[in-house]
Write a structure and sequence with these properties.
83 residues; mainly beta; two-stranded antiparallel sheet; 4 strands; binds FE2/S2 (inorganic) cluster
């Protein structure tokens, strides 16, 4: 199984509305923190939770993980500081 890249050692704070989002878990998307379908060419196609479907029930800024190694996906838990 391929390992996610670490494109950004930090979070993406992005304001979102209530709705469904697809968080990029492989870090190959050019539309971070959202999936753009690049996971298929990167070898992550068909893997569970890649991308991760996220139901946002409260609008506002969210701390999306940018390093893809968080233990609390899709949100940052500070793991990037240890990479
Ligand atoms: S491009 Fe990364 S999960 Fe889809």
């Amino acid at each position: 199984m391929p390992e996610p890249k670490v494109a950004q050692k930090g979070l993406y704070v992005k304001e979102v509305a209530v709705g469904t989002y697809y968080w990029c878990a492989c870090d190959h998307s050019n539309s971070q923190p959202s999936c753009d379908g690049a996971h298929k060419a990167a070898g992550f196609g068909g893997m569970p939770n890649i991308p991760m479907r996220v139901e946002v029930r409260e609008a506002g800024p969210k701390p999306w993980c940018g390093c893809k190694h968080t233990k609390t996906p899709p949100y940052c838990d500070g793991t990037h500081a240890t990479l």
